[in-house]
Amino acid sequence: MTDWLLTPPLTASEPLAWQVSRIGEAALLRVDGAIDLSTVYLFRVALRRGRAVSPTVIVDLSGVSFVDLAAVQALEHAYHRWHRTGGRLIVVASAPRVRRMLEFVHGRRFLVVTPSVGMALQLLGQEAGAETGADGTRPAGR
Asked: Are 39 and 137 in contact, with CB atoms under 8 Å apart?
């Protein structure tokens, strides 16, 4: 049974709060509350603010209790728009309910979802390391 997909947020008006900070070369967008049709506009604003800080954004949904299709679509839209311009989007989702929704609705196709900010930073570190040559220098033109 997929009742976990249909269960509404804890309260109909659960507020959405967010904060953007810098962590290394990336922006860290921490989101708390529920992201649904009534709060997705604020989530999109938060995504744009994170992108203004850095082309690489880690979206930390650890404090999010509920996401619906509107939230997943906002992440997909941001991913596609940023990917075309060289940006990166990594989603942190530690709550099983949120992870399942992201994975169920397309997340595995292109969204990078990790269970912690630390793992997201490790992933970025591995990618940055992959851009350097064997002698530790960056290729010309970068």
From this structure: no
Q: What are phi and psi of 76, to 5 degrees?
A: -60, -45
* Amino acid present at 47: L
Nearest to 4 by CA among 122, 101, 107: 101
Beta strand pairing call for 88-92 and 112-114:
parallel
Extract the runs of DSSP E, i.e. beta strands, from the chain: 17-23, 26-35, 56-67, 88-92, 112-114
Per residue in 70-82, pLDDT tens? 999 999 999 999 9
pLDDT digits (tens, 9 = 90+) for 74-111: 999 999 999 999 999 999 999 999 998 988 876 567 88
- The pTM is what? 0.79
Q: Which amino acid is present at 121?
A: L
